[in-house]
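Journal club side-thread
Mid-discussion, someone asked how the predicted structure for our own chain would compare to the paper's figures. Pasting it here so we can look after the session.
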Amino acid sequence: MELELISIGNYKIMVHTIVFIVGIFVVTKILLWLIKQALYRQKTTINLDSGNTYAIFQIIKYIIWVIAFGFILETIGIKVTVLIAGSAALLVGIGLGLQQTFNDIISGIILLSERSIKIDDILEIDGDILKIQEIGLRTSKGLNRDEISIIIPNSLITTNKVINWSHQSKQTRFKINIGVAYGSDVDLVEKVLKESAWEHPEVSDKNLINIRFLDFGDSSLQFQVIFFSENIFRIERVKSDIRKVINRKFKEHNITIPFPQMDLHFKTNFSENTQQPKNNS
């Protein structure tokens, strides 16, 4: 155990030092595993959902790893207090160079501690809809509706306007706009639109389906279908299905969806006594 492995001047690393480092690493991993199992086992008892449990575990994990890293430095003979004091100027320089990175890390700590955003939450960021899969210390990972995994800097979530659809009630209201030709039976159009939304199995609370006659458009009568659904992340598929039903029912009832059109009127004003040019020959 006293066998010398590396010697640089007065600095030596012995076999027992390596054993201690490996021991600290193994103990840390085991401790984290036990904490994780205990948290996820007791989450129903202490009324925590998966997102909150994940956030608490991430905070604990980072704290324990920082402590473990400090022990490792002490084990190999590096005094943490001396290291911090001696590298203060260097840390200032690094902080200025990595300002955005530190901003992302602080934002990650805020997200994990506040728990305003959790795993499986549906967010709207810069017009894109994402389901959060992972919240890290610097970045978070989300899946958009095209099944593309997106890495998001945490500062983007904390500093920008973000809509968290998961903070709504389970039922969220959505809209579909559609126009029909002038001369259509308004009552029949409203009936067909309501039936079309009614047929979809993922439309919640059928009694809340509402049809609005919005306006007299340039080329059509404008209607709006309002419905509620719990399928927030895949709502575009639900809307597509409802539009297909609307199109089919419109054909069955001879309701026309008009093309944009414009009437042009040409005004002519020719004089009957228009004089012909004189022939000078």
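Post-session note: The chain has eight helices and ten strands.
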